[in-house]
User: Fold this.
Amino acid sequence: MYSTGQTSPNRREVSAWANDLFEHGFLILDTETSGIQGGFHEIVQIGVISSAGDVLMDTLVKPEHPELLLEWSRGGKRAVDIHGIMPEMLADAPRFPDVYGQLCDVVKGQDLVIYNADFDRKMIAGDCQRHQLASISVRKYHCAMRQYAQWYGVVNRYSGGYRWQSLENACNQLHILTAAQAHSAVGDCQRTLEVMKRLAGI
Assistant:
């Protein structure tokens, strides 16, 4: 069992949320993308695992515009500098419409946990709209980043809410050591699962 030594109301609430999900079972999803603008940038990798750690989906995705992977952002980084997925690695990968059916089948009716759910939902919605596909249907989306922010408890003095922590920061703060590859879709799913276990006290 993982013990934080603290039993604040915020942590008890988040722990109850995580424990309830583990009791009933859930999936974790992560995507890697060609950038951060939904509807413009595209998904280039999708990973889904179960709360037991089983890999249910792990695929590269060929975007319509792979050249965007090499464009510099305002922050001085390219997408390839973050996840290492080069355009040539996607030449023979399936397109989003080709993996859409599998994704729908895997997540349908499931509680879906995502670290920074707003981002991945935006990117999935953008690709669905681009290819004129119906929205992905799940039982409920859960944002592990928002829950961890409440658990960690650092207040954002500008918004008054809790300051969001990156997945990398969360793993460092929780002393999570894992062989999972950072900034790969399945690797980040596995790291999110470890965060969820800490929140649940497992």
Observations:
- The two ends are 5 Å apart (CA to CA).
- The CA atoms of residues 7 and 13 lie 10 Å apart.
- The chain is about 40% helix and 15% strand.
